[in-house]
């Protein structure tokens, strides 16, 4: 029974907090909840009849009797009711009557974490964690299950209409209440489960350990910048050195800086589109704004086009991820095998691989061991990868994946430092003037479109920049924050590309489209990095699958499509088949990345922002000739980028 | 005194059970697979506003059976109805059929309880894009008003995921109380006498706000729903222990809030910002006011049945 009572007390604590915060809103001061007390009336006088929900049971009467007794002592001689603190409730001394009192599910409400998983938090009822509360009145934790602090009174004056924070607080009380109503129901029953389109967008943010979201649900600028950086920083990082080399030294630098500036410009155009149109109100999703702007059939066409490009990008990303996962898993397997066989590699730091030369060497190996027959990067590992996904794709609770997402950022930092340290050791091994030098790099190369294509994907954030910036606390700083984020991203990509390529001590054609492959598997630092990246990609893959599924089904069946398992399975099977086939037959991620980059870049980076900006200005009769020329120029660049991809053999 | 009915009707799957469970704080029933031949009728004896009893009806399912049952039982069903609340699912693709059922209900009402009030809820509005909601609601409202003649229906658009559901039901309850203006005036006097910042009056079964008076403006316009949800959660917890919630006081250095049973049909919530006033004083005041309000209610008990 004490388990019951302490769960009740925990709940009462939260009730008290909620009521306090509602009332305190009106005074606008921070609540001093420490001295808050709750006092309960007795059931002694039956005032009026009660609802028929109650049963007049033996236990019920006994309970009331106990309560009556307790309550009589709450009034002192002075007539002032003695205040009971929360732990001294009348209930706490009651004894249970065998099995008649129902088991109480755990009272703790789920902690809200910023989460990039749609389904993790809301899909199952809080009450599925059935069991007694582990807390007694002695070790009850001081934390409150959910507490949304009242915003400071200084920031507002007078009557304030509903803003993001109060909307979410209401949504959360509703969610809690409805979850309680679902207490007896099997989790598969869909009644009163919060649907995805109701979940506030602030929850779709990267999980940063140790950082808790503030009261108003928005985050400070530096967190937004980190979120953007984290989202943009992807697998293109490993392609950077190779891609830079494809454009020549000067060409590479020019293109890298130019693309960064151009992507930034168009991202800002998209971000401020709503203001350009003159649409007041809360910031809407990009597709909604476009729909408003273009309207009617043209709007629907745009929607179709945006969805297809978006899905195409995601599918391409999935395929690339499968290839990379096979790569990382293969190398990790090699490391473990070597370690188990006691092969110790010394001076691994100075040994470098030249994969374009290696296919010949491989053939000269006399007898590949049993392990190596079954563990080949291109032929077998992609299939082995299917096994973990059979489990992962069935996992309902995807919240655990959000933690692994942070590993990606750590890996990037480690790679960055690794490259800088290697580069400083190797020194500059480059010559731009002497064509006979083995380290010769021409200033401009005709294969520069590899770089442009890769960068289109590397600087790609345009389809979610509005969503991410919605969470920014000071909206007026949006443009500044996006600029800073882009500068940071460029400052990550450019050094890695330029320094690695310039200082690489082997002939430049050895640099491959995944620079980790230039190092042997047993390099310790990189082995760890590969491990981290493997786990990170492992967790992002199903997330991408979810996005694809969501976008496709929403487009074809509306936002209320029914979740039918067989459809999901069919889609997943197709996606995995595609990924495995590409990984086995043509695992050339440089190729895939530049194509995906060119296609999605064409749509989102070049065409869409320019077209919408020009239409917006035109509808306000503010379109100047030079703006027209400039933006049409950008569109032509995008088309040129796409077309040139065909020209590379 | 005779119990009058509140009929909650609508097509199967339109959200009536969820709505009822939210408003009346009942646990969601396990999904009983609806075998074809039974009509889903729930006679729940939740007392509501004194002498009203809520009946929940599912219209839909076996059409032929429905028509038969409707024809043979309709007098029974539709006699003594105080309020008809009809729920439409905004996503429904069978508008013709929905309207057909609705009109059959209206005919039955016209024959058996012509004094009944009709409310239409366009439900699940969260599934509509927010810039289209007004448009779609106005269209439906026009159609419904036209179809309902000579009866008059009041339309609301609702969704369980925002404040519109609570507001709609609050408005419905507000319309059903005959002397609500008088109640509000009395509340205002009560608040001024005891120097309270705000006084709320809740309906007892559903914690819908019947009337309120506040001395100072408050920023949060949807606080009633929040308080209501919180207290209903608490009532649910209490019911698990076979106890029932009677009253509550929440106090800190800045305010004191009292939630107490008031009359036989209502709860009241009093917020005092002067923390120096001892609780006992406020509780005595509430107790004395109770007698006055009960008298008010008894006077109008006979008139609690609606007169237009």
UniProtKB/TrEMBL annotation, chain B:
<keyword id="KW-0342">GTP-binding</keyword>
<protein>
    <recommendedName>
        <fullName>Ras-related GTP-binding protein A</fullName>
    </recommendedName>
</protein>
<keyword id="KW-0832">Ubl conjugation</keyword>
<dbReference type="GO" id="GO:0005764">
    <property type="term" value="C:lysosome"/>
</dbReference>
<dbReference type="GO" id="GO:0005634">
    <property type="term" value="C:nucleus"/>
</dbReference>
<dbReference type="GO" id="GO:0003924">
    <property type="term" value="F:GTPase activity"/>
</dbReference>
<dbReference type="GO" id="GO:1990131">
    <property type="term" value="C:Gtr1-Gtr2 GTPase complex"/>
</dbReference>
<keyword id="KW-1017">Isopeptide bond</keyword>
<dbReference type="InterPro" id="IPR027417">
    <property type="entry name" value="P-loop_NTPase"/>
</dbReference>
<keyword id="KW-0472">Membrane</keyword>
<dbReference type="InterPro" id="IPR039397">
    <property type="entry name" value="RagA/B"/>
</dbReference>
<comment type="similarity">
    <text>Belongs to the GTR/RAG GTP-binding protein family.</text>
</comment>
<dbReference type="GO" id="GO:0009267">
    <property type="term" value="P:cellular response to starvation"/>
</dbReference>
<dbReference type="Pfam" id="PF04670">
    <property type="entry name" value="Gtr1_RagA"/>
</dbReference>
<dbReference type="GO" id="GO:1904263">
    <property type="term" value="P:positive regulation of TORC1 signaling"/>
</dbReference>
<dbReference type="InterPro" id="IPR006762">
    <property type="entry name" value="Gtr1_RagA"/>
</dbReference>
<keyword id="KW-0378">Hydrolase</keyword>
<keyword id="KW-0458">Lysosome</keyword>
<keyword id="KW-0963">Cytoplasm</keyword>
<dbReference type="GO" id="GO:0005525">
    <property type="term" value="F:GTP binding"/>
</dbReference>
<keyword id="KW-0547">Nucleotide-binding</keyword>
<dbReference type="GO" id="GO:0012505">
    <property type="term" value="C:endomembrane system"/>
</dbReference>
<dbReference type="GO" id="GO:0010507">
    <property type="term" value="P:negative regulation of autophagy"/>
</dbReference>
